[in-house]
């Protein structure tokens, strides 16, 4: 029985919609004629139908124009740090350094070619999105749209004179975006798309095939496009959860509706943090993430940090411990986190304030 | 409801034990306090316990000695074709060419250094395991122990003067092996270990750190060992099925017992193929696989191939179509395929013979 009393604010793998979990449970029991989704061959027509449907729904939900391909791969977004550079960098690329994940992407690319960091917010522990100028003579510009650990987010679709590559692992499907502004988008599934184990990659086809290096087969986007994401056995069950998540989003009313819900959840939570005398945000207001809300104790109440952790846990709130490099708290309010859970956290913060400030 | 009438002989993803499917279904519904295994953070102590237990059981079941590490990665065995070469090849390595998968491993390694093919059975469409001499001056020797497509298998643990690397994707956990003979074993899960989405790698630690090249972080075995397979988010649900499969194997009596069961299933099936006037094997007797039993129609009955496919399907038998490069039929009888399913296939072959030979 799924307990109603748990509010899961985990940064990922994160909360999934009840409908998605139930559909997956059912497919584990019986996907086709008593055969579990865990044991169905990826070469059966029943599975290929799911693959095609997932791609079609992804195109529909994200409004992906002609000329783009969608692939589903294992190995995580971290493997994409390497694949992006291998497939797109002829000589040099520029990157925006907005946190640990961006830094990891940079490090992997530096092995492949020349990397120019055109902006960084490392000076203030990545608590804001830095200013930058995009040069026109680089192979691509790489950004991390949402920085899970720090709670900052680039929420507009950037105009870039060179191909724009975006790691959207933690904010894909959270709002409508103008795909035509991007040349490549990648996102691991376990925040807004489904279960861990699959990464979604959306590629403008014309940017491929322009590098001189010999790309290892398994790292070559063109190989995976040619083989419809089945060059090797795909992560079947994880892709199935993506399929169900897209159905859920469609049923809910699409990304415009999702955006409204997400903005409302974030507005409520930031308002409480700003109001509450015990907590404060760590992030520059204009760069606040709609997905990951980071907050710490006001200096005067620092000694209450463990107390609040414990108090929240007693109230069914889990997954709010901040990343060790930031400390404090982080409430991840991905698509599937309900407004009820947000209200539960807000109530908990209010009650805690009352307990300690008279 | 799981239908009793389906006998799934798929080459992978393949049949899984009922217990494993049921335990996974339960964890999807409620892994901890109403939270699904699909939405539990990989940083929670509840999940870390599963990771540790899976590793511990793998060591126990496979009798892995000191000095070896076990890691769990996404990306499939095809990613290991690249990682093996990147991590172990300084200048040159030798490979045994026993089929399409071995050829793919060779192709990927040829990008990294000099590859010597010391034996191939390509001349007879890989229907036997070729003879070979292992040279002593190469960095490692790579074999594919079981060739899923062709139904051949190397069933003894080879003595090699240089580090032995084995792709055991389709026969790992099918019998006890002497791990000390191997320097690296890798296997995708979806045949004998669990659901697609995770690859298991067993590495003798002392063979690492000996190459000069700069290995990309995500492809570096040492990085994954250092981070206990959590350098990035692991494929949680697939690893969970490996955990449950190991529990099931332990309960059944371990690999010695599994081996007996597997050999009995294979003995029965090959005996029927040898006896039946309509079918014949394609593989040299001494190299017959215990996991994948390939057979075709005797020349005289070739025109009955589609009829048999249809007849088998009517009798609840699925997944027996041979790979397009071999044709005919392939019954994959991995650990979780029951002897009842094997008897059902045999009955079907006998009845079909009676229908057509009077």
From TrEMBL, chains A, B:
Pathway(s) per entry: Amino-acid biosynthesis; L-serine biosynthesis; L-serine from 3-phospho-D-glycerate: step 2/3
GO molecular function: O-phospho-L-serine:2-oxoglutarate aminotransferase activity; pyridoxal phosphate binding
Pfam families listed in its UniProt record: Aminotran_5 (PF00266)
Cofactor: pyridoxal 5'-phosphate
InterPro entries linked to this entry: Aminotrans_V_dom (IPR000192), Pser_aminoTfrase (IPR022278), PyrdxlP-dep_Trfase (IPR015424), PyrdxlP-dep_Trfase_major (IPR015421), PyrdxlP-dep_Trfase_small (IPR015422)
Keyword Calcium listed: no
A cellular-component GO term for this protein: cytoplasm
UniProt xrefs under Gene3D superfamilies: Aspartate Aminotransferase, domain 1, Type I PLP-dependent aspartate aminotransferase-like (Major domain)
EC number(s) stated in the UniProt entry for this protein: 2.6.1.52
SUPFAM superfamilies in UniProt: PLP-dependent transferases
GO biological process: L-serine biosynthetic process
Residue ranges annotated for the Aminotransferase class V domain, each copy included: 6-345
UniProt KW keywords: Amino-acid biosynthesis, Aminotransferase, Pyridoxal phosphate, Serine biosynthesis, Transferase
Catalytic activity: 4-(phosphooxy)-L-threonine + 2-oxoglutarate = (R)-3-hydroxy-2-oxo-4-phosphooxybutanoate + L-glutamate; O-phospho-L-serine + 2-oxoglutarate = 3-phosphooxypyruvate + L-glutamate
Family of the protein in this entry: Belongs to the class-V pyridoxal-phosphate-dependent aminotransferase family. SerC subfamily.
HAMAP family, A to Z: SerC_aminotrans_5 (MF_00160)
Protein name (record): phosphoserine transaminase
């Amino acid at each position: 029985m799924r307990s109603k009393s748990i509010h899961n604010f985990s940064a990922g793998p994160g909360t999934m919609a009840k409908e998605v979990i139930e559909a997956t449970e059912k497919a584990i029991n019986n996907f086709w004629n008593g055969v579990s989704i865990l044991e169905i061959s990826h070469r059966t027509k029943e599975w290929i139908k799911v693959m095609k449907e997932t791609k079609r729904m992804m195109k529909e939900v994200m409004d992906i124009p002609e000329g783009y391909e969608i692939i589903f791969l294992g190995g995580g977004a971290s493997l994409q740090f390497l694949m992006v550079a291998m497939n797109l960098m002829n000589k040099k690329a520029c990157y925006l350094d907005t946190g640990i994940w961006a830094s990891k992407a940079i490090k992997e690319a530096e092995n492949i070619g020349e990397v120019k960091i055109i902006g960084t917010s490392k000076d203030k522990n990545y608590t804001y999105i830095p200013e930058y100028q995009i040069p026109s003579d680089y192979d691509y510009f790489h950004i991390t749209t949402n920085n899970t650990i720090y709670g900052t987010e680039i929420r507009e679709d950037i105009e870039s004179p060179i191909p724009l590559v975006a790691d959207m692992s933690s904010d894909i499907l959270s709002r409508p975006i103008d795909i035509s502004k991007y040349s490549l988008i990648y996102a691991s599934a376990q925040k807004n798309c489904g279960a861990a184990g699959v990464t979604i990659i959306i590629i403008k086809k014309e940017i491929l095939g322009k590098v001189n290096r010999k790309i290892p087969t398994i790292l070559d986007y063109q190989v995976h496009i040619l083989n419809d994401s089945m060059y090797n056995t795909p992560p079947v069950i994880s892709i199935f959860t993506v399929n169900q998540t897209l159905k859920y989003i469609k049923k809910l009313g699409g990304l415009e509706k999702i955006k409204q819900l997400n903005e409302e959840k974030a507005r409520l939570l930031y308002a409480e943090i700003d109001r509450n005398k015990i907590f404060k945000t760590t992030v520059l207001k204009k760069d606040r993430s709609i997905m990951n809300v980071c907050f710490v104790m006001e200096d005067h109440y620092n000694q209450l940090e463990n107390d609040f952790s414990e108090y929240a846990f007693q109230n069914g709130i889990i997954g709010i411990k901040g990343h060790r490099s930031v400390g404090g708290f982080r409430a991840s309010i991905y698509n599937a986190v309900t407004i009820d859970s947000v209200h539960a956290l807000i109530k908990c913060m209010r009650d805690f304030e009352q307990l300690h400030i008279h």
